[in-house]
């Protein structure tokens, strides 16, 4: 009689089967993660404002409505690549404005219809005057040539 093993005592039989996929079959998922669907911003702890970042895209002038239904003009930047909101969801457009301090350097009206690179801090929409999920205070604007 041969040696007694734990498997023979328990009556267990373990088999291994090597499956060979057909030629040309996808053997395994890629090791690298899928590229991000949006560019992450550096949000603060309460997820209401983000550090200064560069936003690239095409600038447009839009007419919206305030809470009372009055017409209200504002600027929108249709982004080349969406940015991530605080929950990681893609946002393809941001509302932009130039603060009083930045207005002498930042001519949003003159850049409408053009590809631009807008730099500034951002925050999530908070009032009826905010018409996109993310609002950017533009401190520097470069128009593409």
- Work out the radius of gyration: 27 Å
The geometry reads as elongated
Report the count of strand segments: 6
How would a textbook summarize the main sheet? 5 strands, mixed, barrel
Q: Would you identify the regions where 5 or more consecutive residues have pLDDT less than 50?
A: 12-16
What is the helix fraction of residues, given as a range?
under 10%
Give keywords.
3% helix; mainly beta; 5-stranded mixed barrel; 145 residues; 6 strands; OB fold (Dihydrolipoamide Acetyltransferase, E2P); elongated
Structural account:
- It is a single chain.
- This protein has 145 residues and is mainly beta.
- It has a domain at 49-143: Nucleic acid-binding proteins (OB fold (Dihydrolipoamide Acetyltransferase, E2P)), CATH 2.40.50.
- It is 3% helix and 41% strand.
- It is built from one helix and six strands, in the order αββββββ.
- The protein has one helix at 6-10; strands at 49-65, 71-84, 90-98, 115-124, 134-138, 140-143.
- Strands 1-2-3-5-4 form a five-stranded mixed beta barrel.
- A hairpin with a 5-residue loop joins strand 2 and strand 3 (90-98).
- The chain is elongated.
Question: In brief, what are we looking at here?
Answer:
By secondary structure, the protein is mainly beta. 3% of the residues lie in helices and 41% in strands.
